[in-house]
Amino acid sequence: MQLNFVEIQEVGTGKYPDLLHFFDNEAQVLYLKSGEMYGKITNTPYGEWKGKTFEDEIKISLDKGIENLELNSISEFGVFGCYKSGNTHKLLIYEMQIDISKYLASGVIKHSITSPISTFNLNLENPLDTNPEHEGENIAISEKTSLISPGAKVIFKFRMGDSEEYEMGIFYVDRSDFSLLSETVGTEGRNLIGKALKDQSFGEKNTFPFEVLTEIIRKLLLNANINPYKILIENTDRKSGFNFAPNKDYLSGLEEVFKATLNWKIEEKTDGTIVVGSPDYSGFTSRDRFEFYRNKDIFSRQIIRDDMEAFRRVCVHDRDFNIAVFRDVKAYTGWNLQSNKTMYVNVAEGTSLTDAEEYAEELAGRLSNVGKIESFTGPFKPYIVVGDEAVIIDESGSGKLGLITEITHKFGKDGFYTDFTVDSGGTLGKGRLVDYISQITKERTDTSRTYE
Fold first, then answer.
1. Phi, psi (5° rounding) for residue 387?
2. What are the pLDDT digits (tens) for 250-279?
3. Could you give the C-alpha distances from 34 to 15, 29, 64, in angstroms and in order?
4. Whether the predicted pLDDT of 127 surpasses 80
5. Tell me, what's the pLDDT at 447?
6. How far apart are CA 414 and CA 405, in angstroms?
7. Is the N or the C terminus of the chain less surrounded, counting Cβ atoms within 10 Å?
8. Strand locations in 96-160, DSSP E?
């Protein structure tokens, strides 16, 4: 018997090559090189095999000195295999992705600037499986099986027709809801920061000796079982040592590190990469100015004006008011605020008079825009992110509204919409007012034993 191959393509060089073929006609080649595992994936899902191109190779190995890689596929499941590393034999399990979009009834994804944890919930149609081997069972969830069991990974992507494909995040199921004879099932979950960093605690590995902070944060994330190839941390020469309570969760521990030593934050990108660094670190998803056209990009708009957080004056001072710098605030026209309504900001001890004057000027400028929260509903926009600046455009021109602080994507058979909230006190490149105040008033905590 002779096999006539329709397409032959040279992909790369390595030992023990094998190919994984996905439901969307995407392919991934795995192979060994210099004792480590590498992969290449096609970059045109749903495309034709002819002229198929592969992206640059990616090292996906967690071990070194790997030998004898072998993979085998299992129908309706995925791939299993094994390899040898040193004197240890390791089992590989690779579950194939399953496209559940055809069962989508409705879904929601929520992001907030106040938390690195994003959430989702889905309602899926749950018809009976037509496969004779699964007679009497539902497809999405049944009494015996489930495509969305707790812990299952759900990858959200959006594409309309031939448009560009947008990644909307990788999430993990927390809970599913199945009722016998119900036509739909529900499921909800969180991103990796919520699942891995908020749900797990330090336990016995709660002490981190004096070391460069970048490496302490890396060890913390690895202890939480974050894939080392999905970690991006800004470099710093700052050093410290920490001792956390065993029952403290990893996310709270990280936040204490930030408060004690660095003005940093943590964020999860749509591809599942965990990024840690200062607000202007290049590893974070870049923020941009986003323009909305009235009567085109906006279906509804709600404006809340509240003078509870609006002020006429600001005072930056130290603890004993040895330094006290006052500045007037230009409030919104027509707002009849009391003339002595003052925001007092107690800055860190040791702040110089020059710095206090600079802080007061900055605060007075920012406070002039505080007090207005606007909520919008518009067409589906999967590419906007919290922290983008919103600008509204109409026949009279354009006007800055502030920073986008909340985003809710709604999608399903009833349509695709994006709700977002704008805080007038935020500025692109500078963040929210509350973040700035936290930065200039930051004091060291007792969590850090030593630092330099």
1. 105, -15
2. 999 999 998 877 789 999 999 999 999 998
3. 9, 16, 8
4. no
5. 41
6. 25
7. N
8. 104-112, 115-125, 153-158
DSSP string for residues in 271-325: TS-EEEE-TT-TTSPPP-EEEEETTTT-SEEEEEE-GGG--SEEEEE-TTSSSEE
Confidence band, pLDDT 50/70/90 cuts, at residue 44: low
Q: How far is C-alpha 284 from the geometric centre of its chain's CA atoms?
A: 10
Residue 407: its H or E element: strand 397-412
Q: Closest by alpha carbon to 407, among 210, 208, 168, 173? A: 168
- Mean pLDDT within 276-303: 84
- Helix, coil or strand: residue 291: strand
218 vs 28 pLDDT, higher one: 218
Tokens encoding 105: 């009834």
Integer Cα distance of 21 and 25 in angstroms:
7
pLDDT digits (tens, 9 = 90+) for 167-191: 999 999 998 887 766 678 889 999 9
Which of 94, 100, 63 shows the shortest CA–CA distance to 81?
94
Pick the most confident of 140-149, 155-164, 242-251, 297-306: 242-251
Block residue for tokens 């079982």 = 225
The predicted model gives 287-296 an average pLDDT of 84
Which residue from 376, 374, 389 is spatially nearest to 417, judged by alpha carbons? 376
For 95-117, b where at least 16 C-beta lie within 10 A, e where not — what string?
eeeeebeebebbbbbbbebeebb
Element containing residue 80 per DSSP (H, E): strand 78-85
Q: Is 333 left (phi over 0), alpha (psi -120 to 50) or beta?
A: beta
| Lookup: tokens for 10 | 């040279």
What's the rounded Cα separation, in Å, for the pair 289 and 273?
A: 24
Question: Two tokens at 27?
Answer: 């392919």
Alpha-helix residue ranges (DSSP H) falling in 69-201: 192
Pair of tokens at residue 324: 């006290």
If 0-12 CB within 10 Å is exposed, 13-18 middle and 19+ buried, where does residue 2 land? exposed
**Token pair listed for 402:** 């502030």
